[in-house]
Write a structure and sequence with these properties.
alpha+beta, four-stranded antiparallel sheet, 30% helix
Length: 151
C-alpha cells in the first residue's frame, strides 16, 4: 500500500525558498554583493590631473610615469620631436613624480620632479635636453621630419 503525504497549500514554495536561501550559491552571491558594496564605500578613486609635456629633443619619446617607489609605471604619452601635448587624467603620483623616457629603442633615463614644482609650473613639464643628449650618446639618430616642399 502506498502512503501519500500531503502538504498544506503554499508550503512547497516556502520549502523551495528555504532551500535556495540555505544553499551555498546564495551565500557566495551574498558575500560578493556585500564585498562590492563595502569596496565601493571604502576605496577612493585616485586623484587625477592633466599635465602638459613639451619635448624639445630631436627624438620621438615614449614617456611613462610613476611615484617615488617605482612599483608601477603608467604609460603617459608618445611625443614627437618639438611637440607639446596635454596628457589628461594621469593618476596623481603624490609628492614626487618619476618620469621615464625611451626613444628609438634606447633608454633615455629618468627625471624626478616634485609635485610642488609641477603645480608651480601650472602642470607643465619641459623635458630636459639632457634626455636627448643621452639618447644621442647611445647612437640614436634624430627622428626624421618631413619638410613641406622639400625633396
Amino acid at each position: 500500500m502506498t502512503t501519500r503525504t500531503t502538504r498544506a497549500p503554499g508550503t512547497g514554495r516556502h520549502l523551495q525558498l528555504r532551500s535556495i536561501v540555505g544553499s551555498d550559491w546564495f551565500a557566495i552571491i551574498a558575500v560578493c554583493v556585500l564585498g562590492l558594496l563595502v569596496g565601493t564605500l571604502v576605496l577612493d578613486e585616485p586623484e587625477r590631473v592633466d599635465i602638459e609635456i613639451s619635448n624639445p629633443t630631436a627624438f620621438v619619446l615614449s614617456i611613462e610615469v610613476t611615484d617615488i617607489e617605482r612599483e608601477g609605471w603608467q604609460p603617459a604619452a608618445r611625443l614627437g620631436p618639438g611637440a607639446t601635448r596635454t596628457i589628461e587624467d594621469i593618476i596623481d603620483q603624490g609628492g614626487i613624480w618619476v618620469f621615464r623616457f625611451f626613444g628609438q629603442g634606447r633608454d633615455g633615463g629618468e627625471l624626478e620632479v616634485t609635485r610642488h614644482d609641477l603645480e608651480r609650473a601650472d602642470w607643465h613639464l619641459d623635458i630636459p635636453a639632457a634626455i636627448g643628449d643621452l639618447l644621442a650618446a647611445q647612437g640614436a639618430l634624430p627622428t626624421p621630419t618631413a619638410t613641406p616642399g622639400g625633396t
